[in-house]
């Protein structure tokens, strides 16, 4: 079964998405997500100009060989653009292979290890009443686990509050005050626990904004509120910094949504400095690479927590769900539902019911792309914000 054609689809049904469509000589079609938020056209060009010409005529069944060919053959390895492109090819080929087998993808990964996939939703608010109302809304939608983000007094707009995308001109610039944040966040979780009790799993995303000692201080302050995890507490390029955090707090740690390969995790996993791996299939080389990463993590009792924001398309989300269902060391799945326009373009078989996701039983990954619908939504440039300290210094957003 040979690859006969490949098409790169760029569409913007509310957010920009890049999708690779691969077609075989016997008519099977597979889809892969290549979306890189804020740098989408870089991956589209990488695929069209450099990768697609290498695919035509290759055996579509040789997924591992194709992965290695694209990773090692380019010489310049890793990086978000390269790994998103490889991920798109990889997922599309797994989609084709599962369709050829007449099975949902998770069956080819060893079958189901659970009946459903626990998901967490996002709750946020500018002040405490808004936060509490948002948590109630997520619970009414069926979520059994909830990430909590709150505004900080004295700061206008910060990560997790409102829509961060800027579609006109330059990125928005936000102002950050670490001391104000460290004082405020524990009071938010104290109020949430008082309102909703001890059983509701709560998560929080620091979004890389603290130094290791600041992260250790926050983790220790949050211990009374029994968080499911504290995410991206410090920029993880400095992997040794997690040693300091781990020494001072028992709050579970999740890291990795900006990582691109298993190599980025070596120290963190081998030294058991984290509890959850946060990579997305879309940004970490696809199903092939993620399965290897999770098997490596399992040796050290580290679990999965696949990244699932709205800038991961339903194609990328579906691929992650098949992994979630199959692997033994599943932890939790982030789930931010897409807009109705997005679901008009991406027709999906996965479902969300009573707090649990399931990829469905459709052969393949269970997502098809309506190219006519996609053509209605033209690409629109968009930037994520830039963060600055009060004195104007550029800081991590």
UniProtKB/TrEMBL annotation:
Residue stretches making up the Mandelate racemase/muconate lactonizing enzyme C-terminal domain: 128-252
TM helices/strands, residue ranges: none
SUPFAM superfamilies xrefs: Enolase C-terminal domain-like (SSF51604), Enolase N-terminal domain-like (SSF54826)
Highest taxon above the source species: Bacteria
Cross-referenced PROSITE patterns: MR_MLE_1 (PS00908)
Full protein name: D-galactonate dehydratase family protein
